[in-house]
Specification:
Chain A: It comes from Chelatococcus daeguensis. The complex is a heterodimer of chains A (234) and B (286). Chain A is mainly α and 234 residues long. Chain A is built from 10 helices and no strands. Chain A has one domain: MetI-like fold. The chains are: A mainly alpha (234), B alpha/beta (286). The interface between A and B is large, with 35 and 39 residues.
């Protein structure tokens, strides 16, 4: 496996030198993806819970569509947002194309279905368990939404981490709407794509290793928080 | 009941605090955009990936304070971005497509900036025996006769258009001629990666080839044919069509690039002692 040792060496160099360009790229990746996941959680958690609890006409098709959108190709989401934000598009006057904001919008669209679909499943199971209890307390189904979301919080962390995984890993959408502009919209994944294009495979893989370490750290932190919360509650 | 109210309040406070913490960390993502004046340039992968812009742009920004944001895509897509008004100027290499862009009113005042050339690259074993030839068309005919693997960009880029032009001069239709001709639909770098992995022939711009690192067994085989000439031009996106185009700043950039200073900066860019781009602006100004 020639090249892998070079990649590891490149990753190590990037980390120990604290390369300022790398720090900026990492910071932008985190800002964009965390903002997108936050926005997606604000929409996706209640949406998923409502879909689990409330019966309304067209609920079945909505669930199928949201489940299907978990597989939405990032490039397609990117093109959709591109056409929306382009100067020739409906939101053109705001001049948002090729900015971090555009990248947040695209990633939010990609993450909402994941959080909403996983939340719906978690809340459905929880409702099956507690429905008699909650009904006897006189809580309506819609009123039960915040309670159930709160009770399911440790499972929902996984839903949010799945969304974050999607956001941190994707390159297709942010490449289209961000333009991979050096110092403005270049993130970890678009930088990896660029270095691959330039044939600098060790540097590309080195960046990939750095990305992996960051994602790992975020997940570890989330799990530790979860464990602490459970101990506090238990 | 009081207990429940307390519980709900506590939850709301915690949720708000967590939200605020995330937001405080993430908010600068949006705040980052408004600072010094900037222009957006739709350009080609060859100018970006060869490292030319990294060499050129800091000099311009240092002098004028105008930041230049480059979106590097194929020439076809770059012109499309200009057409939709999503860039202030385009900096590309496909003469006829550029003239068409101006004729249709999408851009105004095309200027020549610089040229380099295309080179035919292929495996060291050279099954078609084209090494050292100065005739690109004959070389393609030899490759087609041997049905030796050939990688095409297939992405409507300037390089792709130049390659199709050469096939036409060779009176060949390789796409209909079996699977030795492979369209990758990708940028110069990815196409070179593919060619390196398949030991295939490929037409590349000299700049990307020189700065490309993953060459594998590929080597330069044919160069120096006049038909491999590669002219770069710069065009202002028509402000009459798109009122938001930063005309003043964009013209400042165009005028600098074709000024003696900008031209000298282009000539000074070298990789391992080799000059990548040759300035040839005819100083009209934008």
């Amino acid at each position: 496996m020639q090249g892998l040792d070079e990649a590891l060496a490149a990753a190590w160099r990037l980390i120990v030198t604290g390369d300022t360009a790398l720090v900026e790229i990492v910071a932008l990746s985190l800002k964009v993806s965390l903002t997108a996941v936050f926005c997606a959680a604000v929409v996706g958690l209640p949406l998923g819970a409502v879909l689990a609890l409330v019966r309304f006409p067209g609920r079945g098709p909505v669930i199928v569509v949201i489940d299907a959108l978990m597989g939405l190709p990032p490039v397609v989401a990117g093109l959709f947002v591109y056409l929306l934000l382009s100067r020739a598009g409906p939101l053109g006057p705001y001049g948002l194309l090729f900015t971090p904001t555009a990248m947040v919008i695209a990633q939010t669209l990609l993450v909402i279905p994941i959080i909403a679909a996983l939340t719906r499943q978690v809340v459905t199971d929880l409702w099956a368990e507690y429905c008699e209890q909650l009904t006897s307390l006189g809580a309506g189904r819609l009123r039960a939404v915040p309670t159930l979301l709160w009770d399911a919080r440790s499972s929902l962390v996984t839903a949010i981490l799945a969304g974050l995984g999607r956001a941190m890993a994707e390159v297709g959408a942010i490449l289209v709407v961000g333009g991979n502009i050096d110092g403005v919209t270049r993130t970890m994944t678009t930088a990896i794509a660029l270095e691959t294009s330039k044939g600098d495979l060790p540097l590309a893989l080195g960046l990939g290793i750095v990305l992996l370490v960051i994602v790992l750290a975020i997940n570890a932190a989330a799990h530790m928080l979860g464990a602490t919360a459970r101990r506090a509650a238990g | 009941m009081t207990m429940r109210l307390f519980e709900t309040t506590r939850r709301a406070v915690i949720a708000a605090a967590v939200g605020a913490a995330i937001w405080g960390f993430a908010a600068p993502a949006g705040a980052q955009t408004a600072e010094r004046p900037f222009i957006t340039v739709a350009s080609t992968t060859s100018t970006e990936q060869s490292g030319l812009f990294k060499h050129l742009l800091p000099q311009f920004t240092g002098k004028t304070g105008i930041e230049v944001r480059v979106v590097a895509v194929g020439t076809g897509q770059a012109l499309k971005i200009g057409e939709r008004g999503d860039a202030d100027l385009v900096f590309v290499h496909a003469r006829s497509a550029e003239e068409d862009f101006v004729a249709k009113g999408f851009g105004v005042g095309r200027s020549d900036v610089m040229y380099n050339d295309f080179v035919l690259v292929g495996p060291k074993s050279d099954p078609a025996g084209v090494k050292g030839s100065r005739d690109a068309v004959k070389a393609l005919q030899a490759i087609a006769r041997k049905k030796a693997p050939f990688v095409s960009r297939g992405d409507d880029s300037g390089t792709h258009q130049a390659e199709l032009d050469l096939w036409q001069r060779a009176a060949l239709h390789p796409k209909a001629d079996g699977n030795w001709y492979r369209e990758t639909g990708s940028g110069m770098g990815p196409a070179l990666n593919t060619a390196a992995a398949m030991d295939a022939y490929i037409l590349a711009d000299r700049g990307t080839w020189l700065s490309f690192k993953n060459r594998g067994d590929l080597t330069l085989l044919v160069e120096g044919d006049d038909r491999l000439f590669n002219q770069y031009g710069i065009i202002l996106v028509n402000p009459a069509r798109h009122a938001h185009v930063k005309e003043k700043e964009a013209r400042t950039f165009i005028n600098w690039v074709i000024s003696p200073e900008g031209q000298a900066a282009i000539a000074a860019y070298r990789i391992e002692g080799e000059q990548l781009f040759f300035p040839n602006a005819r100083r009209k100004g934008a």
